[in-house]
Amino acid sequence: MQQYNFPKIILKTGKDRSIKRLHPWIFSGAIKNTIGNPIEGDDVAVYDNNNNFLGLGHYQKGGSITVRVYSFDEVTPDREFWRGKIATAIELRRRCGYLDNKETNVCRIIHGEGDGFPGFICDYYNGTIVFQSHSWGMYKLEEMFAEIFKETLGTKVTNIYSKSEKTLPKSNEITAENRFLLGSQPEGVVMEYGTKFYVNVVEGQKTGYFIDQRENRHLLQHYSEGKSVLNMFCYTGGFSVAALAGGAKDVTSVDASQIAIDLTKRNVEMNFPNCTNHNALAVDAFDYLDHLEKDRYDLIILDPPAFAKHASAMNQAIKGYTRINRAALERIAPNSIMFTFSCSQAIDKLTFRMAVMEASIQAGRKIKILHQLTQPDDHPISIYHPEGEYLKGLVLFVE
Description:
The chain is of the alpha/beta class. It has 3 domains: 8-71, PUA domain (Archaeosine Trna-guanine Transglycosylase, Chain: A, domain 4, Roll), CATH 2.30.130.10; 79-191, Transcription Regulator spoIIAA (2-Layer Sandwich), CATH 3.30.750.80; 210-398, Vaccinia Virus protein VP39 (Rossmann fold, 3-Layer(aba) Sandwich).
């Protein structure tokens, strides 16, 4: 057995089952003893109550997840170890058709637990890489990661931006700041199946753009020809541009944020100069639907922000999903199409589906499921970590 100089985490008897099944989270209640004095982000070695090695992870004080395991093998977590993991993630994206694609130059390169980087994501925007850490252990590695990406991808990388300041847990031991690790260009243009979008990695939500809806936007084009389309919670107008590219008769984009509406207008104008069949409104989504005339639209997209970021908010979130879907179903035209989504990790596929079913019953509308949607292949899901399947979607036929 390899000997580590790291602080040692001993688990209670019976509390090691999930880690033996390769689930990467260790909760505070599973820990029997801590040998040493780890601080935020320190490497720790995890053992069962019989001193059998279980894994290596990053330590976090406070919250319910105390250790995020990045290796279940007895390895040396040095630069070459992390370089190998990054190389594996890049190779997966290349096999999926990204990084060298002339029509799509935006993708996720590292998807947290799905790639064995718990608490860390990395997105690629046509030469700009954005890091976002949700654990201090990953944040401490960001400068090394930047060096490895530059070495590995070469001229494909011109900017690297760390955007972790607001995603890290609160700490009294360490601080973080958003900063460029390479270059200094905050805004650029990316291409997705030939359509173009402005992305500002400094000011935009998340890492700058919602990459995870790429394939679902592409699918929307198939249903858009000749349709009157309503895109709720439009953000930068991804679904609106897709609908117009698919030949929609007219498109309305709605978001409570005027900044989002301005970005939507920029993106529509860039792809369709002097467009006359697009309207963008900065209004509350629920208010808009409550006052919407019936049968105005025959294709509606509902892509709200996460109604439940934690399990404690699940009941309230279910009510929110039921309400917004009911409002849309009450007003959509007969024999129409609806795309509806949940990006709440705490809401599983069945729970979301039941909320939509309840909405249809309350609205008095019969629906059929045409597609069951999820995140694309550059957002892989570890089979040992089902929580990684955060994006759920349904394409419905509404009678």
